[in-house]
Amino acid sequence: MITEIGKYFIFLGHLFTNRESFRTYYNLILEECVAIGVGSLFLVALVSTFMGAVTTVQTAFNMVSDFIPDYVISQVAREMIVLELAPTIIAVIYAGKVGSSMASGLGTMRITEQIDALEVMGINSISYLVLPKIIASLLMYPLLVILAGFCGMLGGYLAGTLTGLITPADYILGLRSGYNEFTIAFALIKSVVFAFLVSSISSYNGYNTQGGALEVGVSSTKAVTSSVIAVLIADYLLAQLLLGK
Amino acid sequence: MIKIQSITKSFGDKLVLNDVTGTFEKGKPNLIIGASGTGKSVLLKCIVGLVKPDQGQVFYDGRDFFAGDRDLKIEVRREIGMLFQGGALFDSKTVEQNVMFPLDVLTRMKAEEKIERVNFCLKRVGLENVNKKMPSEISGGMKKRVGIARAIVNNPNYLFCDEPNSGLDPQTSVLIDDLIQDITQDYDMTTVVVTHDMNSVMGIGEKIMFIYKGRNLWEGNKNDITHSGIQELDDFVFANKVMNSLRDK
């Protein structure tokens, strides 16, 4: 475990040594942004819309006291979506979709000697292949989290108002009342940290694949598992550091 | 010229290369031969620096590769072209983009110059009108030829080929062998070919190193290989039925 963490940090160190020209990375980053960002739009929008809808319905279900006004439903839903569901749950899905894709792509390149081919040409394969993925992830994931937050609240609005759990006016009032802008900053800080963890851990696992097609699958699974564990640990640490009293 | 000295490499307890020393000359194909699992590919990877030997030195025209700093290693590697066993073409790029890749990353050539150079190299390996095809759309032999085109596109001083004939039919194998020999002579490169194909050995084996159980057991050329007097080499050479029948005659 300790050895593996050490190797991971050495791997990260190689990202910044013997880099190629900015022009080379520019195109690679754009390609990765399209693959990571645009490719994840539908899934993120779908999941977060339903997540918001379910959160609203379940919050309403738990509001049993007549002394609690209806707008509290959307207020609670907003806090849950912004603080946890959008950045963290989407990170788990992101690890499953983008992280496994990164790991299997790099793993396949490893076993088919494409990475060796880069090394023989004198190109730092870690920097060339992984750095654009991490930068694209850092650029795209916060945007996906913003989208997830929006879709989550929209999903809550639709589920709440269409089923008569809450009036549109109460829902909007709940979204606006007791708003603390730091929650948005906190969600974005989390999204940047999670983006880095998922992309770097997945790339590390894929890059170090050894063997054949079977091991590519193993690396991909390991990438998702390790990324999710790292995200959950980081989630707790960030909450303790930034929100703890 | 490439000189290797006392290359030794182990993986765990298993000694794969044991004190291998030899010289690879310029302008002719230098073959490393031996049965499967004797350490040929590991030796090749040690020479190009993909695997670091436990001990030993590799000199590229007098430059000590492993003793040199990072800049020297990059300088040497940018003079290397390598054909991998499976071609190692980038799946997501077209044939043209694959061949152009070293020029894109390592040079500041203009787009038109790069296209011209790519077309020249593809023509040199006998491939035309495949520029826009993906690697998955071409045959194994064509992949090898694209691999050779990519290896020579940046005018390397050293060409390495890891089992260039594996998985190819006899006709295509001869074609690839001839291509390697022609390119080596035309561009006066130091070419090292790892193979266990006796057709290649007898076809282009102007300088041969026989590796047996991680040791350099014999060096010579295709004319001497049939009467080396070394039992292990005879076992390898005459395992081929055609070679065996020639010996009987």
Brief overview, please?
Chain A is mainly alpha-helical and 245 residues long.
What does this structure look like?
The complex is a heterodimer of chains A (245) and B (249). With 245 residues, chain A is mainly α. Chain A has one domain (36-242). Chain A has 8 helices and no strands. Chain A has helices at residues 2-14, 22-62, 71-111, 114-120, 125-162, 168-176, 182-207, 213-242. In chain A, helix 2 packs parallel to helix 5. The longest helix of chain A has 41 residues, at 22-62. By secondary structure, chain B is an alpha/beta fold. Chain B folds into 2 domains: 1-79 and 162-223, P-loop containing nucleotide triphosphate hydrolases (Rossmann fold, 3-Layer(aba) Sandwich), CATH 3.40.50; 90-155, no CATH class. Chain B is built from 9 helices and 10 strands. In chain B, the strands form 2 sheets. Chain B has a 6-stranded mixed beta sheet, sandwiched between helices. In chain B, strands 2-1-4-5 form a 4-stranded antiparallel beta sheet, with helices on one face. In chain B, helix 4 (111-124) crosses helix 5 (140-152). The radius of gyration of chain B is 18 Å and the shape is globular. At the A-B interface, helix 4 of A face helix 2 and helix 3 of B.
Key attributes of the depicted protein:
heterodimer; A: about 240 residues; mainly alpha; about 85% helix; B: about 250 residues; alpha/beta; Rossmann fold; four-stranded antiparallel β-sheet
